[in-house]
Amino acid sequence: MSDTPIPLALPTAEPWTDWLAQRAGGQLDAARDLAEQLRGLDAPEPTDAMAVWNDLNISLANCYAVCSLMSQVHPDPVVRQQAEAAEQDADKFDTDLKLDRRVYDVLSSLDASALDPDGARVLSRALRDYRRAGVDRADDVRDRLRALGEQETSLGQEFAKNIREDARSITVATAQLAGLPEDYVEAHPADADGRHTIPTDYPDVYPFMTYASDAEARRALHIAFLQRAWPDNEKILHDLLRVRAEKAELLGYPDWPSYDAEVKMIGTGDAIGEFIDRIVAAADGPGRRDRQTLLDRLRQDNPDAAGIDRADTMYYAELVRRERYGVDAQETRGYFDFAKVRRGLLDVTGRLFGLEYREVSDAAPWHDDVAVYDVYQDGQQEDQQIGRIYLDLHPRPGKYKHAAQFTITSGVVGRQLPEGALVCNFPTGLMEHTEVVTLFHEFGHLVHHVLGGRQAWIRLSGVATEWDFVEAPSQLLEEWAWDPDVLQTFATDAAETPIPTELVEQMRAAKDFGRAYQVRTQMFYAAVAYALHREQVDDIDTRVRQLQDQFDLFPFVDGTHFHASFGHLVGYTSAYYTYMWSLVIAKDLMSGFDRADLFNADTAHRYRDTILAAGGRKDAAELVEDFLGRPYSFDAYATWLASAAD
């Protein structure tokens, strides 16, 4: 018989509120008991003490995971609120634990040389976490840090909740739907007054901004989209930034970015600003050239236009790609039916990484839209399951508005399977190719979580590398969504004709247009996250506008408040630069693959085993060097960005 753990059982007959109370409360109670056990150890054996520490962190992680997910996806607001409250309880315990001098004394007394290398790594990370939490500070400072930790949790939850629950929309006349795909128009029927409601959910916004020829309607939707959670999140953000700044100061750091960057690949807060400046300089020339192309095209329709801003860029970029490269995104949509894309994604990643996905019919997920699969891997013990995944891919009221992978359980060998949920907001019918790319990207996180989940130490399980590396494997997987041979395995039209190679090649050429100005916009976002955390400004609106003038190639649009719905300010804090930092590494990782043979098993499995399956057992730089046979470099990214000037 296999000793493989069974997946976590979600509630079938009992109410979700009862199940959540038992799961979250039971795991947190277990963590409390284990912490007490640690406090009572006297001259402990290192392996025994670290086993208790591991058990404690398994219980705490299990509590966190279910609370984090359910607070964002459950259709019942009562369950979401219950999950938020339970997460606050877990955060309070975690903060108290990391300020607990007795537990710290036990851990710091252990002889790391008596542990295996992974155990020694976990101990080193734990002691670092205690120092960064302030365990060695005076009692009054520790009390203040404890209070700040609780405030940060509460403020972050409220910030995210306001984004999730702010359902805005505009109404337009039928004539203002001109240019939009037929299925989009059918999905937004007129009301009794002949008006059509366009919500600010992603599946509604992006097609409208790309295809709607009515400039006034596009601008109205753009403004509504960037007014979400405003003004409620304005004060919350002020308070959140203040809390983090005070925390950094109490811990002896000059500012929050300096504190935050210490445990990332980038190393220092100053290096974030230097990296942003480096990328901005590299993207400046080609970005300005492509912006001028957009403006020239806009002036064909409006000769008096003085400039172009974000309310018009997606529409005119689509026109340029259609007219210059012969790529009509509405034509390409016909090849990307959601059901086929989802199946294709599983087939592609299964073939690439030696995985098999078996659909589960009795998993009882939190919503009928959610599909569930058990994951198996070639070369493992026969019929041995390695994980379970949940695909929650369509929008609904009260659900998380962006796209992300959420943990359900982190894998621990012999104890629990790695399980995760992919939470996105895609249409149920035809998809934009950009949405297909996003789906591949986000699924990369899920695969990383599962493949990296066979660890003895939960601290090293799954996506457990430095935070500014975690996007690299997902960005790498995007490459498969641009390959003609790959796409032809699932991208077919209504007559089941595969997408033509010539069309994919045209799409690839067209995607290069605007690359550099998109990079500049990403650096604007990174600069907002960095500067707002480094500075303490009274007028966030004004500072964000200044940063847009400095870093973006498109001007501020009056009436917008981008920062109020910039959800990454909660999770990524000052480190939104990580998307571009990871992309530098992803482009270098791609150099280890043969673009003419993307399914080469030797390369794909070596990548799987050296990087994904390693979890957090090594620093990210070492993982990359293990795969490439050399340290990572900026060269591949520089070549990629420079090619935008061709």
Architecture overview:
Helix 1 (16-39) packs antiparallel against helix 2. This protein is globular. The longest helix is centred in the middle third of the chain and has 33 residues, at 269-301. A hairpin with a 7-residue loop joins strand 4 (371-377) and strand 5. Helices cover 57% and strands 6% of the residues. The strands form 2 sheets. The chain has a 5-stranded mixed sheet. By secondary structure, the protein is an alpha+beta fold.
Keywords:
5-stranded mixed beta sheet, globular, two-stranded antiparallel sheet, 7 strands, 646 residues
Beta-strand share of residues = 5-15%
Taking pLDDT < 50 over at least 5 consecutive residues as the criterion, the unreliable ranges are none
What is the spatial order of strands in the main beta sheet? 3-4-5-7-6
- Portion of residues within helices: 55-70%
Number of distinct beta strands: 7
Count of helical regions: 26
Query: Rounded to an integer, what's the Rg over CA atoms?
Result: 25 Å
Characterize the biggest β-sheet.
5 strands, mixed
Mean pLDDT across all amino acids:
96
Q: How would you summarize this macromolecular structure in one to three sentences?
A:
The protein has 26 helices and seven strands.
Secondary-structure blueprint of this entry?
Layout: H1 16-39, H2 46-73, H3 77-98, H4 101-108, H5 117-133, H6 139-165, E1 169-173, H7 182-187, E2 195-199, H8 202-211, H9 215-225, H10 232-250, H11 256-261, H12 269-301, H13 310-325, H14 329-333, H15 338-353, E3 355-359, E4 371-377, E5 385-392, E6 404-409, E7 419-423, H16 433-451, H17 472-477, H18 484-487, H19 501-512, H20 515-534, H21 540-551, H22 568-571, H23 578-590, H24 601-612, H25 620-628, H26 635-642
